[in-house]
Design brief:
alpha/beta; 26% strand; two-stranded antiparallel ribbon; six-stranded parallel β-sheet; Rossmann fold; single chain; binds zinc ion; 4 helices; 12 strands; binds adenosine-5'-diphosphate
Length: 195
C-alpha cells in the first residue's frame, strides 16, 4: 500500500526594515527579481496610500522599478494572492492596517515566501506599527541603514524637515532626509509656537 507522503512545506516571512533612503525598496526589488529569474510565480503589492509614483510600480529612490498591484487592505492583499503564487512581495508595510501580521502568517502557512519592506520608525523615532509586530514573527530580518546627510555616519532615523504632526505625510520630495541618532532632531517637525 502506498503511504501518502506529506508535501514538503515551504513558506516563511522575511522583513527588510530601516529608515527612509536606507535601500529597503532596492533590496526588496533585488530579491523579487531573483525569484522571477528562477521562474517562480511572484506577486508584488503596495498600499494605495503611497501613490507618489503611479499605481502599478514600486520605484526606489535610485529609480529601480518593478511592477506591482495596489491594494486597500491586508485582507484584499490575501484575497488577491493566487493559489500558485510562490513569492509575495510587499512594500511600505508600515502603511498597512494591523491585520498585516495575520495576513503574512496566513500566506507563509500556505507555503509562500513572504517578503515585506517597511519603515521601522516614524518621524519621531517611534516604532511604526505594524512593522514591530511583523519583526516579532518573521524568520528573517534585514536592517538597512542610510547615510546621515549631516555627518556621514550610518543613519537609522528619518528626519522630517517640515512642521507637521501627521504620522503619514507622503508626497513632495524634500520632506525627509536620513540622519544618525546624534543628528536626528524630532523637534524640527514641531510647529513653531505662535508669538
Ligand atoms: P528606501 O526604500 O529604504 O526608502 P530606496 O531603496 O528607495 O530606499 O533608495 C535607496 C537609494 O536612495 C540609495 O541607493 C541611494 O541611491 C539613494 N539615497 C538618497 N539619499 C540617501 C542617503 N542619505 N543614504 C543612502 N542612500 C541615499
Ligand atoms: Zn549624523
Amino acid at each position: 500500500m502506498e503511504v501518502a507522503r506529506k508535501q514538503p512545506e515551504h513558506g516563511w516571512i522575511e522583513v527588510i526594515t530601516g529608515s527612509m533612503f536606507s535601500g529597503k525598496s532596492e533590496e526588496l526589488i533585488r530579491r523579487l527579481r531573483r525569484a522571477q529569474i528562477a521562474k517562480q510565480k511572484v506577486q508584488i503589492f503596495k498600499p494605495v496610500i503611497d501613490d507618489r509614483y503611479g499605481v502599478d510600480q514600486i520605484v526606489s529612490h535610485s529609480d529601480m522599478r518593478i511592477a506591482s498591484e495596489s491594494v486597500r487592505s491586508s485582507d484584499e492583499l490575501v484575497r488577491r494572492v493566487a493559489k500558485d503564487t510562490e513569492v509575495v512581495g510587499i512594500d511600505e508595510g508600515q502603511f498597512f492596517d494591523p491585520h498585516l501580521t495575520a495576513a503574512c502568517n496566513t500566506l507563509a502557512n500556505a507555503g509562500k515566501r513572504v517578503i515585506v519592506a517597511g519603515l521601522d520608525q516614524d518621524y519621531l523615532g517611534r516604532p511604526f506599527e505594524p512593522m514591530p509586530q511583523l519583526l516579532a514573527i518573521a524568520e528573517y530580518i534585514t536592517k538597512t541603514l542610510a547615510i546621515c546627510v549631516v555627518c556621514g555616519d550610518p543613519a537609522n532615523h528619518t528626519q522630517r524637515l517640515v512642521a507637521s504632526q501627521d504620522r503619514v505625510l507622503v508626497g513632495a520630495s524634500g520632506l525627509y532626509e536620513a540622519r544618525c541618532r546624534h543628528c536626528f532632531d524630532p523637534s524640527l517637525a514641531e510647529p513653531t509656537p505662535e508669538p
